[in-house]
Design brief:
By secondary structure, the chain is α/β, with parallel strands linked by helices. The chain has eleven helices and 17 strands. Helix content is 23%, strand content 26%. Bound molecules: zinc ion (2 copies).
Length: 349
């Protein structure tokens, strides 16, 4: 069937209203009426063809929440009316080592929610800036938050899991000190989640003006990373750093803040490489620099349940679909606290 969407026909064109086709639900499919879709930085990079391989028309969006409106014959876990979410992936090979381990996000054949080849029209996946999506049941997540929080749940599907997964993998919790570098869409979730896990949280920002906001998000301490003295005071104090900054910067300034055996996890993807880190900064304290990308389906469900239990949602600004191009400009200026979310009801015009 045909539904309304917002997308672009070329990298140098603004997003506009368009009609797209969704498949009829197959035996194992769940059809979802999208209520809200978060706006991720990767949407902007992909739709503007700043990353390689954008397939047009491009309909971005991988922070999707809504209600089930139809299910295939063999779907038993979801019913019409259920509140559900869809994150960054809608399929994978389902039988490799990663898929068997529930780490579908690391499957070599994972299918992203948009811009990945698929059998459906028009030959690649189209994302959540649309009224409806049809997804295999294995990649549909249950939302247990109260319905009035639904719009603010949407960003958990990418920003939430991207920070939750490394916090869990590197054992953030009571007695641990966790640094969060960058207080944007990802960083604001990192602060909330690390705090809820029981860790002491130190937020790092380049801007003094963000201090009060970071404290309000739950940071125990805020450090302006341009201040050498304030950085020196944190030397060898952190067990884990979640670095969300997506522009090239001096990594040594942060690895120096790790304790022995501490790890800095990079989750932001800069368009050009970071300057190479000083090896002595690593070997002198057996420190590590690692990377982490979103999370698998079981862990994403765990994250959603953890957030529902702890009353955690994103801080959002709700927009109408036709405001998306303006929202992108504001995102580039860092003028959003902390995530735009599209009200899908406005897609109809
Ligand atoms: Zn994203
Ligand atoms: Zn696989």
């Amino acid at each position: 069937m045909t539904v309304k969407a917002y997308g672009a026909y070329a990298g140098d064109k603004p997003l506009e209203s368009m009609d797209i086709t969704r498949r009829a639900p197959g035996d194992h499919d769940v059809q979802i009426e999208i209520a809200y879709c978060g706006v991720c930085h990767s949407d902007l990079h992909q739709v503007r063809a700043e990353w390689q391989g954008t397939l047009f028309p491009c309909v971005p969006g991988h922070e999707i929440v809504g209600r089930v409106s139809a299910v295939g014959e063999h779907v038993s876990d979801f019913r019409i009316g259920d509140l559900v979410g869809v994150g960054c992936l809608v399929d994978s090979c389902r039988h490799c080592e990663e898929c068997e381990a529930g780490q579908e996000n690391y499957c070599d054949n994972m299918v992203g929610t948009y811009n990945f080849p698929t059998a459906d029209h028009p030959g690649h996946t189209l994302g959540g800036y649309s009224q409806r999506i049809v997804v295999n049941e294995r990649f549909v997540l249950r939302v247990r938050h109260p319905e009035e929080h639904l719009a603010a749940v949407a960003p958990l599907l990418c920003a939430g899991i991207t920070t939750y997964s490394p916090l869990r993998h590197w054992n953030a919790g009571p007695g641990k000190s966790v640094g969060v570098v960058g207080i944007g869409g990802l960083g604001h979730m990192g602060i909330k989640l690390a705090k809820a896990m029981g860790a002491r949280v130190v937020a790092f920002t380049t801007s003094e003006s963000k201090r009060r906001n970071a404290l309000a998000l739950g940071a125990d301490e805020v450090v302006v990373s341009r201040e050498a003295g304030a950085m020196a005071a944190q030397a060898k104090s952190l067990d884990l750093i979640i670095n969300t900054v997506a522009v090239p910067h001096d990594l040594d300034a942060f690895t120096a803040l790790l304790k022995r055996d501490g790890t800095m996890v990079l989750v932001g993807v800069p368009a050009s490489p970071h300057p190479s880190p000083q090896v002595f900064n690593l070997i002198g304290k057996r420190r590590a620099i690692a990377g982490s990308m979103i999370g698998g389906i079981p862990e994403t469900q765990e994250m959603l349940d953890f957030c529902a239990e702890h009353g955690i949602v994103a801080d959002i600004e709700l927009i109408r679909a036709e405001e998306i191009n303006h929202a992108y400009e504001r995102m580039l200026k860092g003028d959003v606290k902390y995530r735009f979310v599209i009200d899908s009801a406005t897609l109809a015009g």
